[in-house]
Structure formats: C-alpha cells, structure tokens
What does this fold into?
Amino acid sequence: MHHDLVIKDARVVTSGGVSNCDIGVLQGRIASLGTGLGGAEIIDAKGLIAMPGGIDSHVHISQPSGPGIEMADDFASATTAAACGGNTTIMPFCLPEDGQTLRDAVTAYRAKADGQCLIDVSFHLIVKSVDPTTLGQDLPSLIAQGMTSFKVFMTYQGMRLTDGEILQVMDVAREHGALTMVHAENEDAIEFLRDKAERDGRIQPVHHARTRPIPVEREATHRATTLAEIAGVPVMIVHVSNGAALNEIERAKARGVRVFAETCPQYITLTADDLDRAGFEGAKWVCSPPPRDTSEQAAIWAGIERGAFDVFSSDHCPFRFADTAGKDAPGARASFRNIPNGIPGVETRLPILFSEGVAKGRVSLETFAALTATNHARIYGLQQKGAIAVGKDADIVLWDPLVSKKITQDALHHGSDYTPWEGFEVTGWPVRSILRGKTVMLDGAPVGQRDGTHVARQSLL
Ligand code: URP
Ligand code: ZN
Ligand code: ZN
It folds into this structure.
C-alpha cells in the first residue's frame, strides 16, 4: 500500500507493547504498522518515541469566572499550547452563564472554538442548575449529540449542587448513558474555615490551601462515590490531590462502585508551600484542590504506580498574574477568597509526567500512553482516538526522550504570563505533534492549518 505519510523507525508505543516499526498513514488514519513501508512523505523518526497524541480531558478555556475576570487563553492560544505540549485533543467545559441555558452555552462555546483550533476539541458540559429545561431537555439532547460527560461541583458559590441535586443529575446520566465528573470538596466546611481565617486576619494566598484541608476533599470524595453508588452510575472523581481521598475511591471500588480517578501534575510536583511565597506571589499557585505536601505527593505516586488512577490531566485553568482581570482581581490582595482559582498547565502536563514518571523509571511507556491518551479516549468515548492502532486517527506525537531542559514561561505558548513550573527541570520533550496525519507542531513551534474540529463522542457506559 502506498501511504500519504510514513513515520519511519520510531519506538512505537501501542497498547500491546513497544516495538520499533514504521507507521503508515492514509487519509488521516493509521493504515499500517510494519517495516519497509512506503509513502509520499517520509518522517525519519529514528531515536524518537511515537506516542498516541495526548488527550487532555480536563481543561478550562474562555470560561466565565466572575465579573471582570477573564481566562488567559482563548481556543487559538490554548490549542497552540496544547499541541506544543504533545496533545492532539483537548476536552474543555461548557459552562452556562447565569440565565443562559446549557444548550445556548454549547452553541456559544462552539462558536468561540470554530476555526480557531490547531487540534481537536471535544466538549464536556458543566451542570450548575437542575431546572427542568436542563435536566429534561438540554442534557438528553446534548448527550445524544455526543457530549456524553458533565461535571458537577460540590464547591464554589453559584456552582455547587446539593446532594439531592447531584442525585438528580446522576439519574439523567444513568438514563442517557453519560458520565458524571465530580469536583469533590465540601463547600460548607470551606466556608466555615474561610470565614474564620478572614476574621483572624489570615488573608494571604497560603490560606486558600489551609482552608481547603484534606478532610474537606476526603469527606466530599466519600459522599460523591456514595451518591454514585445510590444512583447506580459510574463516576469520575477529578483532580484527586491526596492519599486519603484516593483511599475513599478505592474503598468505593471495593464495594463494587464504578469509580474512575484523575490526578494532575500539580499534585505530584507542587506543595502548599508554593502558595506561601512572599507578598502576593503565592496567588500564582492558587487552585482547587490545593497542592498538599511531599508525603501526599508520594501517596499520589503510589496510586499511579498501583494503577489506582485512570487518567492524568492538567486541569488547565489559566489566569494572568499581573492583571486585575486575572489573579490580581479586585479584592484578591485583601483576601485569598477573591483570587481566581486555577493554574495553567496544558503545555507542561505531558513533559512533567514523562520526566518524573518515565525518565525516572516510575511508569512504563505503555502506562504513560494509557494515563495520557488511551484511557481518556476509552472512558469518555473518543473511539477514533487515543491509540496507535490500524484504523484510528493518525494522532501521533514524536518524543525526544533524551533532551533535557528547564520549563520557562518565555518558551511556552499559553496566554498566561507565568508558569507554576518556572525553572523545573525535565528530561524528554515532544518534538512533533501530528493531527490526523498533518503536522501541527514541529520543534516547539505551531505549524499548519487550524483544522481542529469538534469530536462527538459515543457513550461507552
Ligand atoms: O482551581 C481550579 N481547579 N480551577 C478550575 C476549576 C476546577 O475546579 O476544576
Ligand atoms: Zn474542579
Ligand atoms: Zn477543572
């Protein structure tokens, strides 16, 4: 067979193992895996590793985050940064503005993304209200259109749902075959601790972490998994930050509840001390749940190593630091309560896990591929994606496993004006990202057309 493109001599990571071979691409799909393949375009990939293109199933882009607050990325900059960090698909959220229907929110997000995306995009939904239109009309119709997963929040004023409301949402998920993702932190407990901290004058960024301690997440994780058990649905617990919350997930699994678990780079590399830097600097690391300490990092690593986590995502939620529309929002210096939550990370997620996991011998190449692409595709229903296998989309990323560099803001492509990992040393970096057979990043620079499309998903539940 004559291919449009052949990637020659890479170490190819498939779910069946790692082998040296050629990858033949025809009409945007992987057509052959073998040796001596011929094609119109040849990429010499000797010395490189061919991975399935990264799928980041937890990113926030252009999401309303309070009056006057703006996220630092639009779909053009976010997908550029994602491609440069070794991704070929991202999964952002559609959050309705107050008074907007979920259906109208989806239309608005799709319009924002249209024609802007360097890589593919597949939207999740956020359910922040359980009115009859949302539950009875919009959710069933949007699930049928391929948006088969939605996030609910147990925290954040204006977003959190009560237990009864979460059960109602899970019931719709059960009936229509969708997956509920839960942000598990106990808002009442946070509010109690936050009020107390403010009364005592503890208003600096580090108190964001101190008023969201581990029990806040552990209790909510127990409740979320129990609600899923009662509703009879699978559930994804997103951004797990510590060992006690992970234990709740494993206890639920042992009871037979179908629970998936996600963790993120911040929980294996950052700590609450990062929020305790001089002045307002710590605001750069304010995210929820907050980073913990080195013993919790070890607990998360142990979970990764024993297979307790299904996906490793970024929770990319970028704000600019030196910006009153970002971290320096009105009131943010007067109380950590007003600092927008979230950190940028879509471009650094994969190099951090490659370096800390693969290069340091903690995870195999196959596990890396599973945690960063294959499991995201399987769990969220991206059937065409997530693996180097005949018939799949030719979403392939070539990695140089030997290059060593420091992460620095000036080399990144996101819209934020800082990276939480400034100066962090990594070994291994993606050097070429290929989307459906077309190169979209080469040697650290975006190239090619903005041909990223919205990918509808199947319910695989
Ligand atoms: O602090 C965070 N994680 N912000 C993003 C929104 C969320 O909760 O995932
Ligand atoms: Zn969240
Ligand atoms: Zn998030």
Summary: The chain has two domains: 2-51+391-446, 54-358. The chain has a mean pLDDT of 97. The pocket of N-(aminocarbonyl)-beta-alanine (ligand 1) is lined by residues 60, 183, 287-288, 315, 317, 341-342 (CB under 6 Å).
